[in-house]
Amino acid sequence: MLPLKKYSQLIKAEATRLGFDFCGIAKADFLEEEAPLLETWLKNGMHGQMSYMANHFDKRLDPRLLVDGAKSVVTVLLNYYPEQRLPEGEDDYKLSKYAYGEDYHFVLKDKLKQLLAFIHDEIGEVNGRAFVDSAPVMDKAWAKRAGVGWIGKHTNLINRQIGSFFFIGELILDLELEPDGPITDYCGTCTRCIDACPTDAIVDAYVVDGSKCISYFTIELKEAIPDEVQGKFENWIFGCDICQDVCPWNRFARPHQTPAFTPHHDLTTFSKRDWEDITEDVFREIFRRSAVKRTKLEGLKRNVAFNQPDREEIED
């Protein structure tokens, strides 16, 4: 039988061939360090109306409750930094770069399923599941353990080679592999992300109050956006990249190589008026397979209106 190191090398080589930028491995175990932090975060209500974050607390901390006999967590990173950013001037509404192209859930899940099929073909019967941000898996914690990055003060994962503009996915397997170790935190004394957040969502280094984040308000919150954050969104209408844009490590960000993440051609010339006058037909065409569908047209219009200085209430 091939040694554990050889199995690990095979999986990492195939991950690279499939287009993933980084692949690391951690032992499937209880997340002892993260457990009290998650409990405190939830008790303080920092998940806002994201009630799903409080569900499956035990499973979120122990992958062996998600896959019977789990022994390893394989983490992959897939870069999404665009070759050409959409307009982000004072007169432009802004989308988070992760939402430029096709919904990452589809793209990553497909690649992870291919990686799992490879494992079955090359190694044998392995029980495993692919996860992409749609199950109680603490992806950043596993990525940190797998050594593909460290968690920055804005709580996003940072990689020294490509910054932080990437998606994270996992395979949880009942296959024992050679684990990688975590790497050093390279944030140092930098506080640019904390200083730049217009809603003060980064309440302390490494602690983000999700209920204060622009991404939360523009994506997760289904009711009216509170008046107290009026004028603080800087024209972000779906998500927010401010804390990542100011991070010095993102000077190493390089354009992705995934065609599916290229924005719809109409988006590249979308004016402020186009956003304000967007119709259901245009919304469906441009965001047919996009993460932006999560807000529905009504939510997007609410976000656009909230960014207007003399906004009027959107009629039901």
UniProtKB/TrEMBL annotation:
<dbReference type="GO" id="GO:0051539">
    <property type="term" value="F:4 iron, 4 sulfur cluster binding"/>
</dbReference>
<dbReference type="InterPro" id="IPR013542">
    <property type="entry name" value="QueG_DUF1730"/>
</dbReference>
<keyword id="KW-0479">Metal-binding</keyword>
<feature type="binding site">
    <location>
        <position position="240"/>
    </location>
    <ligand>
        <name>[4Fe-4S] cluster 2</name>
    </ligand>
</feature>
<keyword id="KW-0671">Queuosine biosynthesis</keyword>
<feature type="binding site">
    <location>
        <position position="157"/>
    </location>
    <ligand>
        <name>cob(II)alamin</name>
    </ligand>
</feature>
<dbReference type="InterPro" id="IPR004453">
    <property type="entry name" value="QueG"/>
</dbReference>
<feature type="binding site">
    <location>
        <position position="193"/>
    </location>
    <ligand>
        <name>[4Fe-4S] cluster 1</name>
    </ligand>
</feature>
<feature type="binding site">
    <location>
        <position position="168"/>
    </location>
    <ligand>
        <name>cob(II)alamin</name>
    </ligand>
</feature>
<keyword id="KW-0963">Cytoplasm</keyword>
<feature type="binding site">
    <location>
        <position position="197"/>
    </location>
    <ligand>
        <name>[4Fe-4S] cluster 2</name>
    </ligand>
</feature>
<feature type="binding site">
    <location>
        <position position="215"/>
    </location>
    <ligand>
        <name>cob(II)alamin</name>
    </ligand>
</feature>
<keyword id="KW-0846">Cobalamin</keyword>
<feature type="binding site">
    <location>
        <position position="213"/>
    </location>
    <ligand>
        <name>[4Fe-4S] cluster 2</name>
    </ligand>
</feature>
<keyword id="KW-0819">tRNA processing</keyword>
<feature type="active site" description="Proton donor">
    <location>
        <position position="133"/>
    </location>
</feature>
<keyword id="KW-0408">Iron</keyword>
<feature type="binding site">
    <location>
        <position position="222"/>
    </location>
    <ligand>
        <name>tRNA</name>
    </ligand>
</feature>
<protein>
    <recommendedName>
        <fullName>Epoxyqueuosine reductase</fullName>
        <ecNumber>1.17.99.6</ecNumber>
    </recommendedName>
</protein>
<feature type="domain" description="4Fe-4S ferredoxin-type">
    <location>
        <begin position="175"/>
        <end position="206"/>
    </location>
</feature>
<dbReference type="GO" id="GO:0031419">
    <property type="term" value="F:cobalamin binding"/>
</dbReference>
<feature type="binding site">
    <location>
        <position position="60"/>
    </location>
    <ligand>
        <name>cob(II)alamin</name>
    </ligand>
</feature>
<feature type="binding site">
    <location>
        <position position="190"/>
    </location>
    <ligand>
        <name>[4Fe-4S] cluster 1</name>
    </ligand>
</feature>
<dbReference type="Pfam" id="PF08331">
    <property type="entry name" value="QueG_DUF1730"/>
</dbReference>
<keyword id="KW-0560">Oxidoreductase</keyword>
<feature type="binding site">
    <location>
        <position position="247"/>
    </location>
    <ligand>
        <name>[4Fe-4S] cluster 1</name>
    </ligand>
</feature>
<dbReference type="InterPro" id="IPR017896">
    <property type="entry name" value="4Fe4S_Fe-S-bd"/>
</dbReference>
<feature type="binding site">
    <location>
        <begin position="240"/>
        <end position="241"/>
    </location>
    <ligand>
        <name>cob(II)alamin</name>
    </ligand>
</feature>
<dbReference type="GO" id="GO:0052693">
    <property type="term" value="F:epoxyqueuosine reductase activity"/>
</dbReference>
<comment type="function">
    <text>Catalyzes the conversion of epoxyqueuosine (oQ) to queuosine (Q), which is a hypermodified base found in the wobble positions of tRNA(Asp), tRNA(Asn), tRNA(His) and tRNA(Tyr).</text>
</comment>
<dbReference type="Pfam" id="PF13484">
    <property type="entry name" value="Fer4_16"/>
</dbReference>
<keyword id="KW-0004">4Fe-4S</keyword>
<dbReference type="GO" id="GO:0008616">
    <property type="term" value="P:tRNA queuosine(34) biosynthetic process"/>
</dbReference>
<feature type="binding site">
    <location>
        <position position="133"/>
    </location>
    <ligand>
        <name>cob(II)alamin</name>
    </ligand>
</feature>
<comment type="pathway">
    <text>tRNA modification; tRNA-queuosine biosynthesis.</text>
</comment>
<dbReference type="InterPro" id="IPR017900">
    <property type="entry name" value="4Fe4S_Fe_S_CS"/>
</dbReference>
<dbReference type="GO" id="GO:0005737">
    <property type="term" value="C:cytoplasm"/>
</dbReference>
<keyword id="KW-0411">Iron-sulfur</keyword>
<keyword id="KW-0170">Cobalt</keyword>
<dbReference type="GO" id="GO:0046872">
    <property type="term" value="F:metal ion binding"/>
</dbReference>
<feature type="binding site">
    <location>
        <position position="187"/>
    </location>
    <ligand>
        <name>[4Fe-4S] cluster 1</name>
    </ligand>
</feature>
<comment type="subunit">
    <text>Monomer.</text>
</comment>
